[in-house]
Amino acid sequence: MKILFYLPVVTPWWFDRIVAPLIDRLAVEAEVHVMVPPLWCGTGITPDQLAGVAAADRVEWHILDDEDQPRLRRGGGDFDGLLDRVRSIDPDLALCRSADLETPRRFPCPVRHMMEAAFPPFPSRAEWLVLREDPFDHCVMPELDSAAKDILHAGFDELWSAMRRKVSAQTPDRGLADQRGSGAETLLVSLPLEYEHEENFFGIHRPYADNAALVSALAEAVDDDVQLAVTDHPLNLLHCDRAALDEVVARYAGRVRLVSPRRRKDQPTLGVVTASDGMIVSNSKVISIAAFLGKPVLRLSNHATGPWLNAYSDLPAFLGGIRGGAPSAPSQEQAKTFFAFHAANNIIDPIHEDTDGRLILDMVESPVDRRRWSAGIRRYAESCPELAL
């Protein structure tokens, strides 16, 4: 068997902590090829990354170092030479870290995108990943019969209840609570922003050029009875110039409020969504917070959303549903099934002692397999002691 890792937008951190362990495990099961560019705009690798792969001598390396390699990050080219190289390898499977989705679709084999496994508000580890056919299909799950749902709920029930108690016990944002009390007719809509550092080329799939443009467009579109409660991505606070966002927030002070962390490592999005009437989101994984809380969702994206979220795609319909008092909202029974299924069936911990090449391949060949569920939930529970009863 031949496995191709195609990695045009992998960061050195992602390679060291996630991809290298996967290569080492899969090299036991298959012939491994790695296509990756040199470091540019925070993506690609250096010789340090090669040195961190234990199985490096058994891997066929294809360093994409020609003058065209920066364009691989965004796509938009025919990349015929690259595709010829892929065809010459003739892989049985491609594991991708690529913001350009069109080029991997032309590969002569099944393709899976390696994406972060976070599903807030449940805790997760930064090294965990999931394998997806489309990287931004959020809260999607297969049809499950009642017996499968019973298995998932039974195994996940204590974790679900623990998270319910944890969220219920959180201290509410007094500023938001006071504001809601000052005007019963005011609609509070949470707007969590996405990471927009230059290394995050996945931003090409967002409907607006940047976060400032998104906030400005929505502030122009809503009426005075709507306030957008904006929370920024934690990494934007550390690494990005936020001057344009601050200017937009100041310009629309009556309709936009930026809710900032009060302490280091504080992440206020959960509290803001809890206090809100609904959430507007594009491709961020925090959509699962709205799912957990049963909040109406407006999703601005061309990618699939789990039907059970009952998500809106139109702003007037979304706001009209909230104003009418009976908006479409996520099914809570289905939410419990989704979170249990994600933990039981989908998460890959690349450094866990139980993770070997055969397990990874099984998750591709059998995307849904209840034989994995008990061990999956056990690994998840052991890795998240903060949810212990």
CATH topology name of the largest domain: Rossmann fold
Intertermini distance: 44 Å
Please state the average pLDDT score.
Answer: 93
Return the domain count. Answer: 2
Can you tell me the CATH architecture of the largest domain? Answer: 3-Layer(aba) Sandwich
How much of the sequence lies in strands comes to 5-15%
Largest sheet: 6 strands, mixed
Task: Give me some keywords for this one.
389 residues; alpha/beta; Rossmann fold; 6-stranded mixed beta sheet; 15 helices
Describe the structure.
- This protein has 389 residues and is an alpha/beta fold.
- The protein folds into 2 domains: 2-142 and 344-387, Rossmann fold; 151-335, Rossmann fold.
- 39% of the residues lie in helices and 13% in strands.
- It is built from 15 helices and 11 strands.
- It has helices spanning 12-26, 47-51, 80-89, 102-105, 146-168, 174-182, 211-221, 234-239, 243-251, 269-275, 287-293, 315-324, 332-346, 357-365, 373-383, and strands at residues 2-6, 31-36, 59-63, 93-96, 111-116, 129-132, 187-192, 226-231, 256-258, 278-281, 297-299.
- The chain has a 6-stranded mixed beta sheet, with helices on one face.
- Helix 1 packs across helix 14 (357-365), helix 5 packs across helix 13 and helix 13 crosses helix 15 (373-383).
- The longest helix has 23 residues, at 146-168.
- It is globular, with a radius of gyration of 22 Å.
- The N and C termini lie far apart (44 Å).
- The model has no long low-confidence stretch (mean pLDDT 93).
